[in-house]
Structure formats: structure tokens, C-alpha cells
């Protein structure tokens, strides 16, 4: 880890280091460490006297050697907004983070990213919506952005992983294991990293989560995404802050409606009342973005010719109704006896035509 990233983050704690200020330092051959330790250089960049005193305090307390060791031990990387690897979509917002710290990888320019956020206290309806929409999006090549909080966020990541889709968690703490918040989702974070995704933060390693960090990180969630989907949240919720950022950043905003007598649906229903797009099917969102919908792979269609009648019915059902993919759904729709459906699903799994996810749902195995 280059110490320059860390000194840039230190300066940014006191005075927002825009891309213009960063490039000014580059053009004048001023390192961020020299700026942090030289008040004259800080004056040139617009730091007020009170800012300069605060920078001096932070430098004296800065555990830079310890942070660098953690970065080396845990394979933590960093990128500045002035570098080409910085996500281009995020760079377009008016206050992009000067530095991103991450484990795993960052979203690539060619990846279509959509944010899915909502309530920490997820209801069965919320879980159903996440499985439906994230499942549909994942099957159409979309990468999922969320906040790794309990509830809707964590379930969005899990469903994306179940469908082998890349997913990225944006957090309000350092990305190192000791600082990671919420600690109960650390295992999920490791799964994301191991599955071509990433854990991202604007805060240096060894930074503990603070309440105000989560407001700031929400602009990154929406900023990395072409569109944001709000599923289940109360009237005063962090998910609504993400919605506000999405609108401010001129990104698409979709909300999933809920029952009018449910406190968890107050947020989405009010957003719809205020003009947000109502989402009933992910295909509508994909069409709005000009993304062609994927159909069942040809190999699966050919395979159906050698399947039994029951196996063909299951494959056809999962291809036609990918969101109705639970055992109970298929029992109801296909009218197969319990034992026959179990045998049929087992045969299809052994033939590697379908796969059962960790959430217990079934889907056509991708080529």
C-alpha cells in the first residue's frame, strides 16, 4: 500500500480533496504526505487555519505503519479518483470519494451495475421481492451493488452469489477484517471477494464505522449504479437517502410497492407517490436501460429432447417462470405429487441441468 493513498484520505477528513485539487498536487509534484506536513502547501489548496491545526493533530495520531501492514496482510488495494482504474460511473457524481479502498475487484466499465437496498428488518414479502428481482437481474448479466447491511442488503448479495453474478458491497468502515461492519456479515463479505466481486469503502483500513459514514457511503452505492431499486423501508431510512442520491445523480430510481398497512412499505409507497418508477418486473428496468433480455440457453432446449415428460415440464417451468422457482411453487403449478417432484428435481441436478441455490430455490444451470 502506497502511503500516499493514506495521506490523501487524512487530508480529505478535513477538507474535501476534489479531483482538481489532487491533480493540482500532481502537477506541482507535491506528495500528499508533504501537503499533510506543510501548512504553506495546505494554504495553497484552500485549507483554513482551523483545518491546518486539525491536519497536524491527525498526522501526529496517524498509525500509518500499522495500516500499511494490515493492507499487505489482507491484500487491500486502493485507487484515487485521478487514476484510470477508478470506476467511471462513480467519477461522474459531483463529490466522488478521493480514494477507494477495496478487497477483491472493482466494478469494470463494461459491467452493468444496479443497486438493491432496503430495510434491515426484512419481512417474508421483502425476501420474496429480493429473490424475484435480483434473481431476474442476475440471470441477465447484471452485477448487484448493495450495502452489506443485515436484511434486504445482505439477501441481495446472497441471491446474486446463488446465481453466480458478481456483487459489490459498499461499507461504512474500513475493509479490513477487524474494522468490518457489520461483523456478522464478514463471512458473506469473504464469499463476495472469492466470487469475482469486491468490498469497497472510502475509509482507510482500521477505521471503525460511524453513523455519518453510512449516509456518505449511500452516495457510492447509487453512484456506482445505473439504477437503484428500493425494496421495503420505513419512512426514515437509509435506503431513502440512497434514493435521494440516485435522483441527485440523475440515475434511474425504481421502487417495489407494498401493502399500505405495512410500516416497512411506507418508504417505497411514498416514493411512488412522488413520481418514482414502480417496479413489478425486472424486465421493465432492463428494457429502460436498453438491455436485451436473455432467453433459455440453446443447450438446455436441446437437452429437453432426451428428458422425461416430468423433467421437461420442470425445465420449461423454470425457463418460463424463473421467479417461481421454489419447490412449493412447482408443486402448485405443475400438479406433480411430492415424491415425483423430488425424484425429478434430483435427476435434473445429477444431470447438471438445474441447480439448487443456498436459499432452496432452483434455476437452470448457466452454460
What does this structure look like?
By secondary structure, the protein is α/β, with parallel strands linked by helices. Strand 4 (143-146), helix 9 (152-162) and strand 5 (167-170) form a beta-alpha-beta unit. It starts with a helix and ends with a strand. It has helices at residues 3-14, 19-27, 32-36, 39-44, 49-61, 64-74, 88-91, 124-139, 152-162, 186-193, 211-223, 238-248, 266-273, 282-288, 298-303, 309-320, 327-334, 338-350, and strands at residues 77-80, 99-104, 113-118, 143-146, 167-170, 198-201, 227-231, 252-255, 277-278, 354-356, 362-364. Helix 1 packs across helix 5 and helix 11 crosses helix 12. It has 18 helices and eleven strands. Strands 1-2-6-5-4-3-7-8-9 form a nine-stranded mixed beta sheet, sandwiched between helices.
Keywords:
367 residues, alpha/beta, two-stranded antiparallel ribbon, 18 helices, 11 strands, 47% helix
Q: Assign the structural class, choosing from mainly alpha, mainly beta, alpha/beta, alpha+beta, or little secondary structure.
A: alpha/beta
Major sheet summary line: 9 strands, mixed
Tell the overall outline.
Answer: elongated
Helix % is: 40-55%
Low-confidence stretches: 295-305
Sheet with the most strands: spatial strand order: 1-2-6-5-4-3-7-8-9
SS field, number of helical segments = 18
Q: Rg from C-alpha positions?
A: 23 Å
Could you give the count of β-strands?
A: 11
Task: Give the ordered list of helices and strands.
Answer: HHHHHHEHEEHEHEHEHEHEHEHHHHHEE
DSSP strand (E) fraction?
Answer: 5-15%
